[in-house]
Design a protein that fits this description.
By secondary structure, the chain is of the alpha+beta class. It has ten helices and twelve strands.
């Protein structure tokens, strides 16, 4: 999570007083001789603050920044993640854990402070499986992650059915963002795929559940055994449980495709993850059949989402679009 030491937080900074007087005392610290600041590799304005002497750490996420200069929206996002963290923590127990929210402060650029968690990231585990193809650790951690998500989804299920319309709107948003990369044929195929899935009754028939909403490999850490730690709950919402499942399967395919050029190397791990997820249902075979019928849409949408990233090579972004279309054709 660290991405470089930035220096010490000035004592005259209001943030220094807030951390020393309200945050670090909750962790058993306070009254230190300084606070170190570290950057993170996240896409948001997120920093790690370490109290000198005690070496206690906390994570600060600023919702109001150069990238988000709309204060009302920043305040809304702060309140939303604060609520989401508390809500998800109330649903989980045992070896499943979500970072504890420690404080929020609108006056400090809409700051959210959470506890600092350590562990090996899913991203690291995937990369190890690519480098050392036995993949035993990746399968073990995917088993743990399947249990984490199944508990989150099953404990939060609502009596209401899924509203699939927002996901179709998000699909439209992605295709609009990818317009410079798409041919006219691509646009026609994607439009047809979107209409097909929108009109598929199964996409509307499951009960809505709380989904992580940003189930990417960077947002899950692992401890020993089946211990799972998650954070970054800003995008949590109620939707189809396959939103999370499809996001992770799409990410798995992307990691292997980008690193090796062979998407099929991801298949054993995708199948393992899906099978492990369905062990948490009374009829696992029926659950598996229902999942594999819906997952192509969410997997394809994830590949389109990844293809938006301009840091990727143009040819690879086009390859992701092609793979997304193949997913979306699985009817």
């Amino acid at each position: 999570m660290h991405n470089g030491y930035l220096g010490r937080l000035p004592r005259h900074d209001r943030l220094y007083n807030y951390l020393e007087e309200e945050i670090f005392p909750m962790l058993g610290g306070g009254h230190s001789d300084g606070i170190r600041v570290f950057a993170t590799n996240g896409s948001n304005a997120v920093y790690i603050y370490e109290e000198r002497g005690s070496n206690l750490k906390a994570v600060g996420k600023f919702f109001y920044s150069d990238r988000m200069n709309d204060r009302p929206r920043a305040e809304h996002r702060l309140e939303k993640e604060w609520h989401n963290l508390h809500h998800i923590r109330s649903l989980l127990d045992g070896c499943h854990y979500v970072a504890k929210p420690l404080g929020q402060n609108r006056d400090l650029d809409c700051l959210l402070v959470t506890e600092y968690c350590t562990g090996i990231s899913l991203e690291t585990v995937i990369n190890q499986a690519i480098a050392f193809p036995s993949g035993a650790m990746l399968k073990e951690k995917l088993t743990a992650l399947a249990a984490f998500l199944a508990k989150l989804h099953n404990r939060s299920a609502l009596p209401q059915r899924v509203d699939f319309e927002p996901e179709c709107c998000y699909f439209d948003h992605l295709t609009a963002a990818l317009a410079p990369l798409l041919t006219s044929h691509d646009r026609c195929e994607l439009r047809y795929a979107r209409e097909y899935w929108h009109d598929t009754p199964e996409m509307w028939q499951d009960n809505a559940v709380a989904v992580h909403g940003d189930a990417t490999p960077a947002n899950f850490f692992f401890g020993d055994g089946l211990y799972v730690i998650s954070f970054d709950m800003e995008r949590m919402k109620y939707s189809d449980r396959i939103f999370d499942i499809g996001r992770l399967t799409g990410e798995l395919q992307h990691f292997f495709l980008r690193a090796t050029g062979n998407k099929y190397l991801a298949e054993p791990f995708i199948q393992h993850f899906l099978r492990e997820y369905t062990t948490h249902f009374p009829d696992r075979n029926r659950a598996f059949e229902a999942i594999v019928r819906r997952v192509p849409f969410y997997m394809g949408m994830t590949l389109l989402r990844i293809a938006r990233n301009t840091y990727l090579a143009p040819d690879y972004r086009k390859q992701l679009v092609a793979e997304a279309k193949l997913c979306l054709q699985r009817k």
